[in-house]
Amino acid sequence: MLVAGGAGAYTLVRRGRRRREEEQRAALDKLRVVVDEDITAFGEELDRLEFHPAEPGADDVMRADYERALDAYEQAKSYMAAATKPEDVRSVTQALEDGRFSLAQLAARREGRPLPERRAPCFFDPRHGPSVADATWTPPGGAPVRSRSARPTRPASPTARTR
Prior knowledge:
The N and C termini lie far apart (70 Å). The chain is mainly alpha-helical.
């Protein structure tokens, strides 16, 4: 009796663990599509960047910013390849955020602008870069959404407003 009860409990625990693992795998597969798109977008952003470490006017600080951005891109790809559960995606998004911040610093240095402050990425789309201004947007018939946006938002309809 005792052996049968123990075997039954073991089977139930194992089945529950397998079900949780399958649920996590399915959730990660859904996230993987979005995160892979974000990694690809960041890679394209790096490709479009017209910075060459040997170009005239480039200094060691600019090269370090560029190197950090490249490292963040490689790190994000590596973290995503190693991800086994949805929580692992946080390290990927953090690496991409760090890389985008390094690119923002590089752009400011190249253009002679003040360096940007470290801020959270745009709430609506992290590819917009670091947030720079408060924005409130209200969808038709919905509650206001407040965030820090990298770009000024425009109302989607006459009932939506931006502050």
